C-alpha cells in the first residue's frame, strides 16, 4: 500500500533525508512511503504557476495513495501545519485511512495558553479565552477537535510523543503509526 507522508518536513533543509528515513520505516512493513517532494504521478501543466503545480502534484500523490500519515507536531504556533491539516482532511474525504502523530505531547489547550501567554485568561464560567474574547478549546485533545475527530472517525490513531531532541527528526511516533497501519500494533 502507498502511504502519503504529510507534514511540514518539506520546509526543512534536509527534507529529502527525512523523507528517506520515513520511507525506510514504511518499507520495513511492506508499505511504500510517498513524500510530497516526490515527482507526482502526472506532471501538472507547465503553464501553471509554480505554487499551483506543487498543489496539483500533492493532490495527485494523495489520490494515488491508500492511506495517509500526518505529522501534526505544532508548526509556527500551537497547532499543526495548515497544509498538512488540509491534506489529512482531503484524504479523509476520500474515505481512506488517516493516522497522525505529534512530537509535542501536551494538550492543545496547554500549548495554546503557553503560546498566548498573559493574553489567555479565565472566563467567569471557568473556561479560557484569548484577548479578543474567543474561547479556547478544552477537550484534552492533541489539536483542534476537527483534526482529532477526523482521525478517530476514520478509525485511525493519533500518536503523542514528547521528543527529547529534535522534534522534526524524531520518528518514534511516526514508526508507531506505520506499525499500526501495517497491522503490527505499535
UniProtKB/TrEMBL annotation:
Keyword Transferase: yes
Keyword RNA-binding listed: no
Origin: domain of life: Bacteria
Gene Ontology terms for molecular function: 5-hydroxymethyl-dUMP N-hydrolase activity; transferase activity
Signal sequence interval, chain numbering: none
Gene3D superfamilies reported in the protein's UniProt record: 3.40.50.450
Matches recorded under SUPFAM superfamilies: N-(deoxy)ribosyltransferase-like
Pfam family, one: Nuc_deoxyrib_tr
A single BP term in Gene Ontology: deoxyribonucleoside monophosphate catabolic process
Keywords for the protein's UniProt record, in alphabetical order: Transferase
Protein name: Nucleoside 2-deoxyribosyltransferase
Protein's organism: Neoroseomonas alkaliterrae
Lineage: Bacteria, Pseudomonadati, Pseudomonadota, Alphaproteobacteria, Acetobacterales
